[in-house]
Amino acid sequence: MVRLFSISLLAMLAGLTSANSPSAQEVMNQPVHVMDGWSWHDCGSPTDVVQLKSITLSPDPPKPGQDLTVTAVGTAQRRIEDGASADVVVKLGLIKLLTRTFDVCDEARNANATIQCPVEEGDYTVVQTVALPKEIPQAKFTVGVKGYTVDDEDMLCLDLQVNFMKNPFLRLGW
């Protein structure tokens, strides 16, 4: 599925930051960012190595058969070294379509991403374009990404929902 939604947005763009699992209260206080056909939620904690500030897609919503440009803005709070990884789970409803661990730095290299390992501390804007296959089924997908540093520290936690269902209702602009 679009090379796993672009390896889950390049394992959240080379891991832009995460650390320990947040408490239930911390999770409840974090905003869910909802767009027309997709949404994202930072499920990480303030101590994560990567802190995401925003994710935008163009076109919004994503459309099968078109190029998708993903722009992610975030901060690496600590250096990210070769060997960082991301556990990715893609679901269709309750059905797991894919569960896989990716080497974040290898994926970034293979995709010629604008960020390469090692990633130094600092603010980053990462832009990546992928071709979405026209064969993407009309369905709602969820993608969970949990990233870890080479030292197995939490680096990032991200939940994405992407809806490729066609809207049966006309948009009347009201």
Could you tell me the mean pLDDT? Answer: 80
Q: How much helicity do the residues have? A: 10-25%
Estimated structural class: alpha+beta
Order of helices and strands: HHEEEEEEHEEE
Strand composition percent: 35-45%
So how many helices?
Answer: 3
Give the neighbour order of strands across the main sheet. Answer: 1-2-9-8-5-6
Shape estimate:
globular
Rg for CA atoms: 16 Å
Q: Spans of 5+ residues with little confidence (pLDDT < 50)?
A: 1-30
Q: Largest sheet, if any? A: 6 strands, antiparallel
Number of separate strands? 9
Ends apart, CA distance between termini? 34 Å
Describe the structure.
- With 174 residues, the protein is of the alpha+beta class.
- 16% of the residues lie in helices and 42% in strands.
- It has helices at 2-15, 24-29, 104-110; strands spanning 32-34, 38-42, 50-58, 67-76, 85-92, 95-103, 122-131, 140-148, 154-163.
- The strands form two sheets. A six-stranded antiparallel sheet has the order 1-2-9-8-5-6. A three-stranded antiparallel sheet has the order 3-4-7, with helices on one face.
- Strand 8 (140-148) and strand 9 (154-163) form a beta hairpin.
- The termini are far apart.
- The relative contact order is 0.29.
- The model is unreliable at 1-30 (pLDDT under 50).
